[in-house]
């Protein structure tokens, strides 16, 4: 009893410390700096344990990132060994063996021609790096006006100033400044919410025509890059129409616009391959940004794969003195690169194959949730999916944003043994790639029950008629 009291007292102290001193990401002003979110104490495989001792399936794999699963001894041992060998080196004037080896491994997996990598600390800094490289390259080429960036509604590309300016999700920029004058946003390629009067078979043509109109209106000489997630992750796992990305890529090629594939989420096994651009979508981007799954979240690391021809063009320019004045203290971090190398071993030694083998069961198990009246659509690809809830299926209108139905479902699911990623009226699932078919069944069953309990709540509170 005395030991239990001490544990409870320690937990209360941690909660108090968080409320007094910890500023959480994405807070609202009403609770900023005075909030203690649910605390996790441990993890093992696809499971995490919360402060109350409950064992939960980690439905979102942390933040799309714990691809190899929690408590992988191989990754922890490599991290410790590298820290004892070389814990850090300045990338300004030295390099290290893990960074060099990893660059070769990544080039071997990337689409042909993307044979160079610039390392960052995460996804935001990776996207920021790609955009700054575009600006630098056009400056060197004497094209100072070719700097506009084309993004899309519903997109999420980061939290640094320029990368965040590309975001197009509801509420992301309501109270935040950004470089809006540098960004042009196209329609979200979401077939479920395509414009009225546009048939599903015509939607791809509609989107391509929109981009062509922007190019003709703004001028190709002013557009530097098009940035896209192959599958929009935080926007609700939006899978674009067939052929859309390839057609957009061709327009970029014809108009000398860099195509940047943001694979921060889709790379390193989430869609069954190290990089999904070529293998899944038939794309050959000019740059690919990555992070998250590259180390399975065990160490902060990201990067940009860059086409060698872009670097060759710079080397041939008349401005050999031009400096790409961009870098990070932790670029090419030896510990992060060592962990990424071991993580690649795990992916190549069967984890990618396993992810591909269970993805069909994962998608079909969640698709069955469309039987529920609150569910408008279940969509996804590979081991990422979204359950979108709607007020009614005739208009496909989302529930009033203030209801935050996703949080309600997540609360019920946590009581039942599942951690969900709630996004307003959506629930996103992207479990560790190690998940088995039986564990997928458990996850789907808990999510179904969580949605059913939420429907009961909404009817009882008079917020929904069912």
UniProtKB/TrEMBL annotation:
Pfam families noted in UniProt: Aminotran_3 (PF00202)
Gene3D superfamilies noted in UniProt: Aspartate Aminotransferase, domain 1, Type I PLP-dependent aspartate aminotransferase-like (Major domain)
Needed cofactors: pyridoxal 5'-phosphate
Keywords of the record: Aminotransferase, Pyridoxal phosphate, Transferase
GO MF: transaminase activity
Similarity annotation: Belongs to the class-III pyridoxal-phosphate-dependent aminotransferase family.
Protein name stated in the entry: Aminotransferase
């Amino acid at each position: 009893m005395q030991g239990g009291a001490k544990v409870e007292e320690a937990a209360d102290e941690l909660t108090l410390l968080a409320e007094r001193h910890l500023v959480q990401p994405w807070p609202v002003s009403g609770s900023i700096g005075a909030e203690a979110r649910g605390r996790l104490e441990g993890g093992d495989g696809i499971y995490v344990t919360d402060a109350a001792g409950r064992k939960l399936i980690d439905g979102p794999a942390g933040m799309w990132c714990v691809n190899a699963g929690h408590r992988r001894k191989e990754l922890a041992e490599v991290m410790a060994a590298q820290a004892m060998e070389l814990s850090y080196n300045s990338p300004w004037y030295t390099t290290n063996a893990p960074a060099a080896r990893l660059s070769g491994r990544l080039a071997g997996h990337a689409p042909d021609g993307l044979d160079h990598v610039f390392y960052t600390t995460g996804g935001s800094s990776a996207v920021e790096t790609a955009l700054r490289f575009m600006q630098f390259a056009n400056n060197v080429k004497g094209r100072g006006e070719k700097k506009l960036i084309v993004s899309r509604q519903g997109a999420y590309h980061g939290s640094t100033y320029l990368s965040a300016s590309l975001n197009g999700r509801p509420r992301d920029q309501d109270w935040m400044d950004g470089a809006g004058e540098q960004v042009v946003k196209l329609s979200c390629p979401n077939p479920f919410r395509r414009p009225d009067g546009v048939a599903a078979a015509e939607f791809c043509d509609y989107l391509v025509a929109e981009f062509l109109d922007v190019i003709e209106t703004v001028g190709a000489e002013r557009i530097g890059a098009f940035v896209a997630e192959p599958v929009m992750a935080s926007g609700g796992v939006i899978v674009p129409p067939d052929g859309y990305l390839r057609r957009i890529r061709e327009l970029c090629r014809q108009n000398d616009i860099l195509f940047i594939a943001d694979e921060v989420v889709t790379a390193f096994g989430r869609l069954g391959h190290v990089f999904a651009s070529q293998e899944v979508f038939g794309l050959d981007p000019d740059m690919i940004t990555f992070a998250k799954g590259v180390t399975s979240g065990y160490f902060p690391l990201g990067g940009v794969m860059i086409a060698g021809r872009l670097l060759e063009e710079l080397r041939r320019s008349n401005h050999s003195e031009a400096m790409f004045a961009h870098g990070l203290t932790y670029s090419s971090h030896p510990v992060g690169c060592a962990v990424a190398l071991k993580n690649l071993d795990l992916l190549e030694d069967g984890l990618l194959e396993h992810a591909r083998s269970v993805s069909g069961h994962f998608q079909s198990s969640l698709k069955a949730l469309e039987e529920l009246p609150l569910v408008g659509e279940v969509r996804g690809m590979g081991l990422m999916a979204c359950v979108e809830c709607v007020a009614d299926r005739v208009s496909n209108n989302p529930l009033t944003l203030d209801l935050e139905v996703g949080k309600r479902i997540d609360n019920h699911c946590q009581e039942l043994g599942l951690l969900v990623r709630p996004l307003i009226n959506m629930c996103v699932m992207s479990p560790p790639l190690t998940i088995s078919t039986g564990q997928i069944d458990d996850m789907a069953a808990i999510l179904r029950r969580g949605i059913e309990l939420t429907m009961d709540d909404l009817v009882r509170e008079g917020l929904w008629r069912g």
